[in-house]
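Q: What changes when flavin-adenine dinucleotide is included in the input?
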Amino acid sequence: MSILDRLADADGAFSLEFFPPKKEMPLDSVYGAIEELSVYKPVFASVTYGAGGGDSKRTIEISSYVRSLGVEAIAHLTCVGANEKQTENMLNALETAGIYNILALRGDVPDGISKYKAFKHYKHASDLIKQIKKRGCFTIGAAAYPEAHCEAPSLLADIGNMKLKISAGADFFVTQLCFDENAILNFFDLLCKEGIKTPVSVGIMPVLNPNQIIRMALLSACSIPARLSKIVCLYGNDTESFKKAGIEYAVNQINTLRDNGINKFHLYTMNKAAEIKTLISLSGIANLP
Ligand code: FAD
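A: The predicted holo structure follows.
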């Protein structure tokens, strides 16, 4: 069954995200995590792409590994510093590797590059999506933001830009992490009011240590609800209790969203198999192998 068919399944769907380790690090740890989690039969496993494409070969290599385990692979791809020719080369490489699913993103400006240079050829993800769509053979995902992208003047304006991505060829969306279920529910209400029917998977990241919460909230421009701050106050100095509470928080988020009819989830694994296995088994979002 294709990714889009599985995302349309009324019983819900879940997917996983991995990232390539730093260049000097071996791939064993991410391969181990993929192997351990692929047994839960996710709809897909996606592999992130370093802005600027420095580790694009690793994105393809890891995506190929995902495929070799019988799981649909999605390679992320960004606009940063790329021109049309470089994108065509990347699309050729993906086709050669048999990877026909892409999460098309604008990316952020990395240190040492001007915004002008980073986005000289593509201003927005929708420009990249249009080019990928022309190939006719890729399923295309795009990013969505329950609390609005940091540069968007409002959530409604950001949702308007989701429509541009759909017109350009986006087949589905994956959301930025969001620790506030009420914000996610409000976002889905607005999608409904705005007539957006394209599937949207909710990105869920279990918080496993206090520094991660602050770093991820700042990077993603998302809010930290008081319930999450309390976990830091209560367990900030107790690694194991913190991890347990962070996973429980994510499980509660999933349960609340499911109670409200939302049942597509994308787990940001951070390449950590053990914690994600616990999350999967406590939330019941996948059948146990
Ligand atoms: P865009 O869709 O271009 O949106 C950026 C801003 O421009 C938004 O404010 C939007 O409202 C606005 N906008 C969009 N289209 C238009 C338009 N046509 N006209 C005017 N305004 C417009 N980054 C990486 O570097 N590598 C990754 O692997 C990666 N994976 C990600 C996975 C997910 C699920 C998510 C949610 C994000 C990921 N990112 C990744 C981060 C992403 O690149 C950044 O959030 C980036 O700042 C925006 O990317 P975008 O694709 O949403 O951009």
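Observations recorded in class: Residues 48-49, 51, 76, 78, 103, 105-108, 124-126, 143, 149, 151-152, 158, 161, 164, 174, 176, 203 surround flavin-adenine dinucleotide (CB under 6 Å).
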